Backbone:
């Protein structure tokens, strides 16, 4: 083998290449393949976590939408209940107002009836008093002609006024 220039030994080169191939193959099976499998498992794990997070986020969005719809429904129900309550209050107020007006009309009618009755009584009493005064004046004129009738009338009216004041 001396005819090879620069003292290159092809057998040694071939052995080094085989050693390198064995080393690379051994490292591939012993280190690269397990590390690659570990990385793939890790990547799959994180993809699964990401998928679960996305799924939970979608579920949370669905629940949020559902609660928002319920909240909107509750707001509508609350608005309807408030309107119904206001209507009931207004109706009750109107009924109370009608009842109060009815009672006021009854009170006014009773007061008018009492006033009319009091008026009639006052007229009857004054007629009775006038008759009595007229009778007394007639008696005084008939039985006491010496007294001035006008003076007697004034005295009797004063007595009647005092009698009424008591």
Residues:
């Amino acid at each position: 083998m001396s005819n090879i220039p620069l003292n290159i030994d092809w057998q040694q080169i071939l052995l080094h290449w085989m050693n390198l191939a064995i080393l690379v193959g051994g490292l591939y099976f012993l280190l690269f393949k397990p590390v690659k499998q570990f990385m793939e498992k890790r990547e799959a794990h994180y993809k699964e976590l990401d998928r679960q997070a996305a799924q939970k986020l979608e579920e949370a969005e669905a629940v949020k939408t559902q609660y928002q719809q319920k909240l909107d429904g509750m707001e509508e129900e609350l608005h309807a209940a408030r309107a119904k309550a206001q209507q009931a209050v207004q109706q009750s107020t109107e009924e109370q107002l009608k009842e109060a007006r009815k009672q006021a009309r009854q009170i006014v009618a009773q007061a008018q009836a009492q006033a009319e009755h009091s008026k009639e009584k006052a007229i009857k009493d004054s007629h009775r008093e006038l008759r009595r005064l007229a009778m007394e004046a007639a008696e005084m004129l008939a039985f006491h002609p010496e007294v001035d009738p006008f003076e007697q009338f004034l005295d009797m009216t004063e007595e009647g006024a005092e009698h009424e004041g008591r």
Notes: The chain has a mean pLDDT of 86.
